[in-house]
């Protein structure tokens, strides 16, 4: 079958070939659509419409004809305003709005404003990079670093703020300190010409949908039939293109140089390519590169990933004691339990019609996966389900049993931009240049893990080649 595919591919006049190893496109964008209309997300569940990267995704959504499918969450929605922390056995609403800045909001021992004002006086750091925890502890104090930032890193990277890089994970804040000596001043005054030039390169004219997101102040959006709709629509659009071929169940097994291009080894057979855009994880790319690219493979292998155990739960009735986006748990409270998303609050349209229900997603593991659960392969679903339902009981007081559940282990699903990630990227880019490899990198391993970042990286990779077509 595959050798037939290789022969078919060789025969085609397609100038663009998309090869996917698994039996579906979309990677971590994965949704279960139950027959009664309920949608459960097993990967990303909300996309931010902010900035050039946010507009770029919405432009694509519009181009794919999905405008009527969009489910926006506006600024004044309770899911935009309320996020919680579970600390010392209690749920605490995270400070938000002006009131939250001026008042002492538990579990913090002083108003956020006090830390922010003090931050302006803190000396500028000199390090080329710093862990997120060290940076925030130095500028804003240990309490915010240990609780708030610890949670933030778990809620975005499923990562450990004591290992993650400030420079690569939160570039606007790192650059603010560099440019103005203070995060606060940098955010208020801007970070100067360098940043402006960067934004110019990123200029994305907004579609009507992107303009609407701005006018209506959306904080995030999803799609009626789940996030998986996006890769499905993209696949349909690509299949209508004359010069594009898309293949699933075709893992790339190896790459060798052939003339000025590549020979791509498939399971059984091979195809030739002038240029490759790699949108696979860095470690997967490292494992297929030829031995001659040893140092490039080495740097790619250094980009670590973490696994997440994800449990979707559905309960009968409205059972939440609070309402909002969800809650995060600092690593000091429970290393294994990263947080719980209250999915039915931002996206009630994904719940089954008729009787009220509550949908939750419990996320576990991340940087603590190995230490708390062992190897991601072959874990007992019942153990993960038990751990998730016990957390829902302890954190939210829900004693009822879920009426539906789904357990999945997402192996190596989030790349970790550890301290010195920027240097690794420089070595990778210079290795590609030095060996004149016809290779462009895209995807979550390099310059941002969000759906927006990944889509923008694909667009930039394609645009960098347009001159060569
Ligand atoms: C649980 C979870 C929640 C998230 N929540 C959000 C969120 O709310 N908002 C947000 O913006 N982002 C979120 N993200 C992040 C975002 O979803 C991911 O970073 C992004 O989807 C990664 O996309 P990617 O295309 O780079 O990689 P992937 O999705 O990993 O895709 C890579 C593809 O390459 C294929 N592949 C691998 N090796 C080969 C090979 N040798 N040959 C051919 N194909 C190969 C794989 O099968 C896969 O389909 C979340 C991620 C996770 C895991
Ligand atoms: C508990 C674990 C996780 C939750 N979401 C993710 C993990 C690992 C993954 C994730 N969440 C977001 C992004 C994209 C970031 C971006 O730049 O757009 C990713 C990869 C969005 C996000 N979620 C939370 C925050 C603070 C952000 C950043 C953007 C924003 O402010 O909206 C918080 C959060 N995530 C989770 C929960 C339960 C939670 C807060 C209550 C789940």
Explain the layout of strands and helices.
Layout: H1 2-11, E1 16-19, E2 31-33, E3 39-41, H2 51-63, E4 70-74, H3 78-81, E5 83-87, E6 90-93, H4 97-102, H5 112-121, H6 132-140, H7 142-157, H8 166-169, H9 171-180, H10 183-189, H11 193-201, H12 208-215, E7 218-223, H13 229-239, E8 244-247, E9 254-258, E10 261-266, E11 269-273, E12 276-278, H14 282-288, H15 294-301, E13 305-316, E14 326-328, E15 337-341, E16 357-366, H16 369-373, H17 381-396, E17 404-415, H18 421-434, E18 439-441, H19 451-466
Parallel strand pairs: 1-8, 5-14, 12-18
Antiparallel strand pairs: 2-3, 4-7, 5-6, 9-10, 10-11, 13-16, 13-17, 14-15, 15-16
Bound molecules: flavin-adenine dinucleotide (FAD) and the ligand C=Cc1c2[nH]c(c1C)Cc1[nH]c(c(CCC(=O)O)c1C)Cc1[nH]c(c(C)c1CCC(=O)O)Cc1[nH]c(c(C)c1C=C)C2.
Structure notes:
This protein is of the alpha+beta class. The protein is 39% helix and 21% strand. Strand 10 and strand 11 form a beta hairpin. Helix 2 (51-63) crosses helix 19, helix 6 (132-140) runs antiparallel to helix 7 and helix 15 packs antiparallel against helix 18 (421-434). The longest helix is centred in the first third of the chain and has 16 residues, at 142-157. The site of flavin-adenine dinucleotide has 31 residues, from helix 14, strand 13, strand 17 and helix 19. It holds the Pfam family Amino_oxidase.
């Amino acid at each position: 079958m595959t050798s037939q595919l290789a022969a078919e591919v060789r025969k085609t006049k397609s100038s663009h070939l998309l090869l996917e190893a698994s039996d579906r496109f979309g990677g971590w964008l994965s949704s279960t659509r139950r027959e009664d209309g309920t949608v459960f997300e097993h990967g990303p569940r909300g996309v931010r419409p902010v900035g050039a990267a946010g507009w770029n995704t919405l432009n694509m959504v519009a181009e794919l004809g999905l405008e009527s499918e969009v489910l926006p969450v506006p600024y004044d929605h309770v899911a935009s305003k309320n996020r919680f922390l579970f600390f010392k056995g209690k749920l605490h609403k995270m400070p938000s709005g002006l009131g939250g800045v001026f008042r002492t909001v538990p579990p913090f021992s002083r108003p956020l404003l006090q830390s922010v004002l003090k931050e302006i006086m803190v000396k500028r750091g000199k390090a080329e990079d710093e862990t997120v925890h060290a940076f925030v502890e130095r500028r804003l104090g240990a309490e915010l670093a240990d609780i708030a930032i610890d949670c933030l890193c778990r809620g975005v990277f499923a990562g450990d703020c004591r290992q993650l890089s400030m420079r690569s994970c939160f570039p606007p804040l790192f650059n603010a300190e560099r440019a103005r000596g203070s995060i606060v001043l940098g955010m208020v005054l801007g970070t100067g010409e360098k940043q402006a030039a960067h934004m110019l390169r990123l200029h994305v004219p907004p579609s009507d949908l992107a303009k609407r997101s701005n006018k209506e102040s959306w904080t995030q959006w999803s799609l009626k039939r789940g996030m998986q709709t996006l890769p499905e629509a993209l696949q349909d659009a690509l299949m209508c293109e004359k010069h594009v071929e898309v293949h699933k169940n075709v893992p790339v097994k190896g790459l060798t140089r052939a003339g000025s291009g590549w020979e791509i080894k498939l399971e059984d057979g091979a195809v030739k390519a002038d240029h490759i855009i790699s949108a696979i994880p860095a470690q997967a790319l490292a494992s297929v590169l030829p031995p001659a690219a040893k140092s490039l493979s080495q740097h790619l292998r250094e980009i670590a990933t973490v696994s997440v155990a994800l449990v979707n739960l559905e309960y009968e009735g409205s059972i939440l004691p609070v309402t909002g986006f969800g809650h995060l748990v600092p690593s000091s409270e429970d290393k294994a339990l990263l947080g719980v998303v209250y999915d039915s609050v931002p996206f009630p349209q994904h719940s089954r019609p008729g009787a009220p229900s509550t949908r939750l997603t419990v996320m576990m593991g991340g940087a603590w996966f190995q230490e708390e659960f062992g190897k991601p392969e072959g874990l007992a679903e019942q153990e993960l389900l038990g751990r998730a339902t016990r957390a829902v009981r302890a954190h939210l007081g829900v004693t009822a049993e879920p009426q539906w559940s789904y357990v999945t282990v997402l192996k190596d699903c989030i790349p970790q931009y550890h301290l010195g990630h920027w240097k690794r990227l420089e070595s990778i880019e210079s290795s590609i240049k030095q060996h004149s490899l016809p290779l462009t990198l895209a995807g979550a391993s390099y310059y941002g893990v969000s759906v927006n970042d990944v889509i923008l990286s694909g667009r930039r990779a394609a645009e960098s080649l347009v001159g060569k077509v």
